[in-house]
Design the sequence.
């Protein structure tokens, strides 16, 4: 990477954590960092947290009113403008629930690492204002996910 490319890259402050009862990340920290950085369009401060089913369920119940563990949750503390506006960066937590991710990867017959890559990228895009509330927003978000994941030779997760 050239000095010019590095200067143009968004700055990233990343904290990688494991929650109570969660095992260590099954992916190397440097790879997690590359996935997060590749999904960024602006500077960001992100905490990436791996949790077990109990913590995943508690977070989903407390913040979304849904009494089950879900695969990924994003908590945005500094709401960026819409991604198309090219606004400032994000401050967010991205929480991945390993038992749910592992179960989904098995059911979809894909490597756990590929599924975690998808969930991390998905969460980081949410942190930047992407969503999938409308069909057009979902298409834009899914296309961005495909582009980022392809850089790491991760197959299209929507195929």
Sequence:
């Amino acid at each position: 990477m050239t000095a010019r490319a590095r200067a143009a890259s968004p700055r990233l402050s990343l904290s990688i954590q494991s929650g109570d009862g969660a095992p260590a990340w099954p992916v190397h920290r440097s790879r997690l960092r590359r996935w997060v950085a590749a999904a960024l369009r602006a500077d960001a401060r992100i905490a990436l947290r791996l949790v077990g089913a109990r913590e995943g369920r508690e977070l989903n119940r407390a913040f979304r009113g849904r009494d089950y563990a879900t695969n990924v949750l994003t908590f945005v503390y500094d709401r960026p403008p819409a991604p198309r506006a090219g606004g400032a960066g994000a401050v967010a937590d991205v929480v991945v629930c390993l038992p749910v991710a592992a179960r989904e990867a098995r059911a979809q017959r894909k490597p756990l690492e590929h599924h975690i890559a998808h969930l991390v990228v998905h969460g980081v895009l949410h942190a930047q204002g992407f969503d999938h509330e409308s069909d057009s927003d979902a298409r834009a978000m899914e296309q961005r996910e495909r582009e980022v994941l392809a850089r790491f030779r991760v197959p299209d997760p929507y195929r």
